[in-house]
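quick q for whoever's on today - can somebody do inverse folding on this one?? i tried earlier but teh output was garbage lol. tokens:
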């Protein structure tokens, strides 16, 4: 079912492209800009991230910046990617090391990136080196609910395995390797394990969001199902669902604060 349905709804500009090819990321950047409904989603994600960046000194680094436009919403952010994408500040090495000194950052931010990191323990150790006390990691990531599991398994090209026993997954390409359920596994299902292994990081925010609007947008790989002017109405309805404790979210805003 997944293969046939996804191919039917796939955006024509990404059909047949290799997700690990930098040109696919560049194409996805153009797709976001061409879909007003989707662009509004990204602007809301950036606003949520901006609201949680700690005050004070230190730089802010975004990981996986290739398809986005975060500097329009959070000026001064250092944009990075493991792919060689024109217009970004840094191309990161494959070993995951950040080219900054110890405790020099007040925040690392990212959207849809953690679930592509095949060794999250190594990432958290490196983040612990470069983020100062009082700093944070702030991210918007896929989340696990019965509804999201149906969508991600049937209408999304990336692997999605809430049942995975381990946080790590096999190394593939920088984008083709993934487990969309990883943030939920780390911060919800295995929270006790996370807190025991990483006592210097406190899970301070886990806010499930957006049950339907991303699906309506078609994301970066499918056709759009809604015009931009409808976004405000859809988000108002979603927020109402949250207030009545019925939130089959597809994403979550997560914040880890550094002791």
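ok took a stab at it. sequence:
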């Amino acid at each position: 079912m997944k293969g046939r349905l996804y191919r039917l709804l796939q955006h024509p500009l990404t059909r047949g492209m290799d997700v690990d090819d930098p040109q696919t990321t560049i194409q996805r950047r153009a797709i976001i800009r061409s879909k007003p409904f989707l662009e509004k989603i990204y602007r809301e994600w950036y606003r949520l991230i901006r609201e949680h960046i700690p005050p004070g000194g230190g730089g802010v680094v975004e990981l996986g910046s290739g398809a986005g436009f975060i500097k329009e919403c959070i000026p001064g952010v250092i944009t990075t990617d493991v792919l060689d994408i024109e217009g970004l500040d840094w191309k990161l090495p494959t070993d995951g090391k950040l080219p900054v000194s110890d405790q020099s950052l007040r925040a690392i931010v990212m959207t849809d990136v953690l679930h592509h990191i095949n060794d999250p323990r190594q990432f958290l150790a490196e983040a612990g080196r470069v983020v100062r006390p009082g700093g944070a990691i702030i991210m918007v990531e896929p989340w696990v609910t019965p509804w999201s599991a149906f969508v991600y398994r049937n209408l999304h090209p990336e692997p999605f395995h809430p049942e995975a026993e381990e946080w790590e997954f096999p190394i593939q390409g920088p984008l083709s390797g993934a487990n969309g359920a990883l943030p939920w596994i780390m911060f919800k299902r295995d929270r006790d394990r996370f807190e025991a292994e990483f006592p210097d990081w406190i899970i301070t925010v886990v806010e499930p969001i957006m049950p339907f609007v991303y699906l309506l947008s078609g994301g970066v790989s499918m056709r759009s199902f809604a015009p931009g002017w409808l976004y405000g109405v859809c988000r108002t309805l979603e927020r109402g669902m949250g207030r009545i404790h019925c939130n089959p979210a597809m994403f979550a805003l997560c914040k880890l604060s550094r002791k």
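fwiw Residues 186 and 194 are 6 Å apart (CA to CA). also The longest helix spans residues 36-52. so keep that in mind when u check it
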